[in-house]
Amino acid sequence: MRVVVQRAKEAKVTVDGETIGEIKKGFMLLVGVTHQDEAADADYLADKIVNLRVFEDQTGKMNLSLLDIKGEILSVSQFTLYGDCRKGRRPNFMEAAKPDYAVEIYNYFNEALANKGIHVETGSFGAMMDVSFTNDGPVTLIVESKEKA
Fold first, then answer.
1. What is the DSSP letter of 97?
2. Spatial contact of 1 and 31, defined as CB atoms under 8 Å apart
3. Domain total for the chain?
4. Whole-prediction pTM
5. Helix-strand-coil percent breakdown of the chain, rounded to 5?
6. What range does the domain containing 76 cover?
7. Is beta strand 18-23 parallel, antiparallel or unpaired with respect to 2-15?
8. Gyration radius (Cα) of the chain, Å
9. Which whole number is the average pLDDT over 133-146?
10. Residue 97, domain CATH
11. What is the spatial distance between Cα 109 and Cα 44, in angstroms, rounded to a whole number?
């Protein structure tokens, strides 16, 4: 799995002009799933993300986690994170998991986040979505389950 983690002051996702997910302070996540991903990948990333110390403490140092600040998550599926642009001009999405499998892992990942005590809002898997947010910092990180330490 590959997740783009963006520290957000606020975030929302709309489909056909209707807001379907919205958060205040926390993380805006773009979530990509590949063929080899399984529940263990989702569990690893859920734990890693909620414990990332990227929020400022009282001294202004990035020392607090999402759990510490009682932040929220807006999680949006993003198969294009596995787009390969090395050849030609059209991205190849062969590394992205097929939708029926990807939605299973994506939903499991969101449940794993919620089970850690985080309020999780989501987009609509497979829908054309408009996503807007204010990146706080800006702080943007990429975390991957295949790079487990």
1. P
2. yes
3. 1
4. 0.94
5. 25, 40, 35
6. 2-147
7. antiparallel
8. 15
9. 95
10. 3.50.80.10
11. 9
The answer to whether 42 touches 115, Cβ cutoff 8 Å, is: no
Q: In terms of residues, how long is the chain?
A: 149
Residue 79 is among the residues annotated as catalytic for this protein: yes
Taking the C-alpha atoms of residue 51 and residue 46, their distance in angstroms, rounded to an integer, is 9
Is it the case that residue 148 has pLDDT exceeding 90?
A: no
Q: Name residue, tokens 């994506």.
A: 106
Each residue's pLDDT tens digit, 78-131: 999 999 999 999 999 999 999 999 999 999 999 999 999 999 999 999 899 999
pLDDT at position 147? 65
Which of helix, strand or coil describes residue 46?
helix
78 classed as catalytic: yes
Identify the active-site residue in 6, 34, 78, 122. Answer: 78
**Hey, how many other C-beta atoms are within 10 angstroms of the C-beta on 113?**
25
Cα 60 to Cα 56: distance, rounded to the nearest angstrom: 5
- Tell me phi and psi for residue 148, to 5 degrees: -60, 135
Candidate list 19, 36, 80, 134, residue with the active-site label: 80
- Check 27, 55, 79, 133 and give the catalytic one: 79
> Does the pLDDT at position 39 exceed 90?
yes
Average pLDDT, the chain: 96
